[in-house]
UniProtKB/TrEMBL annotation:
Signal peptide limits: 1-28
Keywords of the record: Signal
The keyword Transmembrane helix appears for this protein: no
Lineage: Bacteria, Thermotogati, Deinococcota, Deinococci, Trueperales
Protein's UniProt keywords contain Ligase: no
Protein name per the record: Tetratricopeptide TPR_4
Native organism: Truepera radiovictrix (strain DSM 17093 / CIP 108686 / LMG 22925 / RQ-24)
Amino acid sequence: MIPINTPYRYFRCWLLLGALLALSLAHAQPRLAVFPFAATDARLGVAVADRVAQGVAAPKIAPELALTLVPPYIVQEGRFLSPLTLLGGTESRHAARVLQGALGVEVAVTGAVRLAADGLELTLHVARDDGARSFRFRAPESAPGRLVAAARAAIWATTDLPPRRAPAHIDLASPYGDFVRGLVLLGQGRAAEAAELLERAARAPGAEARFENRRRALRAALAGDPASPPLLRAALALGAQPLDVGGARRAFADAERHAALPLAQLWRALLAVQAGEGAPELEALARGWASYPFGAVQAALEAAVREGSLSAAARAELAATEASAALLGGVLLAQVLADPALEAALASRLGRRLPTFAYPFERVSQLALAADDPLAAAQALRTATRLEPAGPQSDLYWTNLGWAYYLLGVLGESEAASRRALELNPGATVARYNLALVQTISGRLGEALASYEAATERDLAATGTVDAAAIEDLRAARARFPQVAGIDYALATLLEASGEDAAAARALGRFVARAGPRDAPFVAAAEARRAALRAPAPPLELSPPTVGLGPERLAVARFLPGDRVQLLTELSTPGAQLPRRVTLELALRAPSGEVLVRERRTERLALPPQSVAVVLEDLALTLPAGLSPGPYTLLVRAREGGQAAAQVTLEVGEGRASLARQLVASGVVLRDLRTQRPLYAAGPAITPDDPEVADARLLNRLLAELARSAAVAEALPDVTQGRFVGLAGAEVFAASGADDVRDFLTFLLLSGEAVDAPFAELYARWAVAGAPRAPLASP
């Protein structure tokens, strides 16, 4: 069984990192693009890249602009995919080659600055049309300027770009530090704050002349001055909330008019396509396979999305091109057309062109598995796992490699690959199913049943069902390994978990009939389970439920819209024993009889044999926001053959729940760092009160706790992302206001998890993680 990997495909998935070009080069055709260097401290990465870019006299796209201007691929009607999403960042040789083609410049430079045992280490990639060169330089931590000098020398030696004498020194405690922090803030979409920092840097004693030039350029662009650098205006428009389509179009039109810039022409076309309009620029781009192949493949993608076909001319150009960015676009184009032969050919060529890029090998493997060619899949996946032994997609690669090995009959290697996937991601349920399958076939039924139980528990908790592919894999294994009786026992386990009791009983009967000597320990259990499955379903009963607010089921006079109502009831049977699985349903019914909310899940009851009752205490339902005051009925039902139902009346009052009440209802306890006492008491928190007053009281209390907890903040690393980027230590707590704390509490509530921990520690982790407004969704 193989999982599906679908990348996020959103138009604005490219990253914004501000736009500031020197005025003297603002209207020239760029020859060079320098991307921000990856670094633990974002300021250091931007600073080194900025100084490196200063050492080239040619027109350039500076680090603060480069990421913003990477155009996304057209992949569906109204949907786009940034190359950066597939590349996983910029700090690789293959990323440099793709990004060089995407921007249409002669040279692209990417890199990463790391703290090594003996100081700083810079990995540098310099990409041109004919390939890429990689370098590694080291310098003392106190002398990052040496990395700048070495990188400039490498660029001068490997390109035709003219050198320029410029400062290489980096002192982030100087006005240059304010300048760089301003650039980083632009990357967070905080242009007004960035302008203030650039102004401070420009007015400081000893400021470099370019600080003032860039300050003026940004101020002019923010004011909409048509004389300001057009690419700067374009980047600000792309980063606006919401997207300033008109501003971006005007800016790119100015850029194209001044420099005949193909990149600007492509962006104008993309913005038109995004708006659902015709893009005449695509016709000119379609003829540019020799001059700007990335733009040409975009024209082919747009036609494929719109018409569902690829012209013979475009197919011939794709067959001939060696441009990495165009080949990557061709792989996506083949996916749009659902043409596996074309995709396999282009992905194979892309893998040869970019041998350090795992994505084409992943695609080759997926296509090979779909074509029943496990050998080709295993070969591609061995390369992918070597390139990314522990990357974001690595558990997927190891999972699929384990499956390919299974299909090849190499069971030892299959098990090892599945175990590696689980080491990387314990939640890789497909890998666990694959491991269980190999354990079953290898005659280790006890281990297999434990693995299957772990996998089905995750499946049932996540979706309420068992992965149907795991069942089909066992059915296929019965035909492939007819001598292994244990396959039927494993199959019965999954069938029962999925609710197919009759089929599970038949599978257990086959197991008992065919069991060999090493299956003997499981025969008695199989017979007993088969008898239970064939017996009539026992009647079910539910006791009158009790309800309250949150996990502690706190008593309240009235519930409020948004409250999390927790329910407790006892499920029992007058029969011999409860079923091992039951479907539970909660429903909220209005006085009119309309069902407003319904939640259903399948629960596996991990009970000893002959159990006749179990207390269900983790049932909960959130009352909808905007619920009108009045009485509502909360119903609970249990089904498994028989059915039982019970209900209770909820009185809903007027108003909204305060933040403290929401925290209590969600099981969130925030504690004082020193005393470990809760910062709010459950009783007062649920007492009716003006929510605005209650919220202000809580936020002030939490801000005071941050002020008292400055010592814990001193141990924080520098924040490299989010609203607190560039701050370190107690600066994070000092810069926090009521809105920041409110956003943090919202983040906790949206996570849906009960938490009991010191507030200051949780807040510090949230700040270092970029202070997100909501938990990240799973792909």
